[in-house]
């Protein structure tokens, strides 16, 4: 039997004070109740812990042998209790989340600032990766939750819709696209393109749009980071197809940007969790702050999503 903390506290009080009466007062029990605690501990351990007579209470040999181990057990139990209380009260803890770079560049830092003002003892770790890796990091439990797009159905995760963004074309100032009243997919595809990696949600979304219209393209460059893609645009290598929020990921000096007018170039960004698994108190609270931040501040490049997709 595993001793109950109340029994250990009763035993240690009697051992230290040498009196059932004084020990009962210290642990806020009646003397008969304290006696019951000691008897239950002895029965559970299978040894007698004290020798008693009318004048004194003494530890038995077994009691002396168990004194230090039970003191350590109580210290460890107290540490577990204190840690669990701190975690529940958000006085300490750690939140690890995986996110698309487009979210990491703008909205997320604002939410982190609000969260850390409220809970300075909780560490927030951000892994900014492409959409495919967001899901993988959540499934492998490397990240507790993710902010991303599920590219294909996956029963291992659930997705609560959070944000909506659109794909824009980024091109150098003075580019001929400036004279086009409304940008369409064919008009953008006519120029050498700078695209994100093949496992990114932006690339998948744009390639699906190309397939809808049976369009072929010439790729001038690929980049994993939006700031790199913008640098290629600035160097005149081509037109980049990126989320609108790329404007927050790097310098846009000398670069113009406009939305590509196609309904299927709208991207839904959700809060991704492992199916059937709850979040820690700290992660749950961070999600609340994230939603409050999105709802309470002007969103330049995103729109809030109301529906839920599972």
Polypeptide structure, described:
The chain has helices at 5-17, 20-26, 31-45, 61-88, 101-105, 107-118, 131-139, 185-189, 201-212, 226-234, 281-296, and strands at residues 50-52, 57-59, 93-99, 122-128, 145-148, 157-172, 193-196, 219-223, 239-243, 255-259, 266-274, 303-304. It is α/β, with parallel strands linked by helices and 310 residues long. It folds into 2 domains: 5-88, Orthogonal Bundle (Arc Repressor Mutant, subunit A), CATH 1.10.10.10; 98-310, D-Maltodextrin-Binding Protein, domain 2 (3-Layer(aba) Sandwich). The strands form 2 sheets. Strands 3, 4, 5, 6, 7, 8, 9, 10, 11 and 12 form a 10-stranded mixed beta sheet that branches. The radius of gyration is 31 Å and the shape is rod-shaped. The relative contact order is 0.14.
